[in-house]
């Protein structure tokens, strides 16, 4: 019964005014941003993240990262640890310790997607 | 992959660059997830148990090695048996504590025979009980030690009596003839 109202409402509603309307130019999306949107909308980004997460658990990377955090927390004191501390701790080591095979697998998947979506 | 054969070198280079970028994105996102989880664990102190468990596992692995070592025979070593933690146990338990029935100090390894006499199961104890004036004691002393115990205990720990009221425990030892033969 309400379907009509809903449908009419969504069609007839005026577009949300853009904050950039006063600017002369519209913001151009970079190619990268366009690809990002396609990745997200297709669900591929989520699938890729899950795949990467799974591989990183399998190879022990996640356990290594957790051990690093534990050691850091012991030294600095449990209550003095901030999230930022841990992110700064893990980012260089995390990026450096991803196994080559895992990285290669993910890169391959991404490039396949790019090839199929970029056309 | 075969899709890429149709791309120009420029496009292929772009593809490499972009895929690296997106890979980094995914990795950073996962790093934040792990950091966030570890932050929570650290602040809530949830890894305290983990440290204890890890220590336990280390100890038990060591102990297992010691047991597997053939130079550590168990029964062949006479009265000392080595357990998996490398501890020796004497054949008679030597810890001393208070008997909760009569209040005497007893050795753990000699507690069972003590209790037999203390609670009225043994021959000497039963003889003494029949000399007592209270009829209830006679009835109870023939039953299980558990039933003899409950009517007369007025505290959960020691039953040392200060006044002269009759009881199974108090009366028996006034003559002092209780020690192990």
UniProtKB/TrEMBL annotation, chain A:
GO molecular function per UniProt: transcription coactivator activity
Region (Disordered): 1-23
GO CC annotations, alphabetized: DUBm complex; nuclear pore; nucleoplasm; SAGA complex; transcription export complex 2
InterPro entries: TF_ENY2, TF_EnY2_sf
Record localization: Nucleus, Nucleoplasm
Top-level taxon: Eukaryota
Assigned keywords, A-Z: Activator, Chromatin regulator, mRNA transport, Nucleus, Protein transport, Transcription, Transcription regulation, Translocation, Transport
Main localization of the protein described in the UniProt heading: nucleus
Keyword Protein transport: yes
Signal sequence, start to end: none
Biological process according to GO: chromatin organization; mRNA export from nucleus; protein transport; transcription elongation by RNA polymerase II
Subunit relationships: Component of the nuclear pore complex (NPC)-associated TREX-2 complex (transcription and export complex 2). Component of the SAGA transcription coactivator-HAT complex. Within the SAGA complex, participates to a subcomplex of SAGA called the DUB module (deubiquitination module).
Family: Belongs to the ENY2 family.
Function: Involved in mRNA export coupled transcription activation by association with both the TREX-2 and the SAGA complexes. The transcription regulatory histone acetylation (HAT) complex SAGA is a multiprotein complex that activates transcription by remodeling chromatin and mediating histone acetylation and deubiquitination. Within the SAGA complex, participates to a subcomplex that specifically deubiquitinates histones. The SAGA complex is recruited to specific gene promoters by activators, where it is required for transcription.
Name recorded for this polypeptide: Transcription and mRNA export factor ENY2
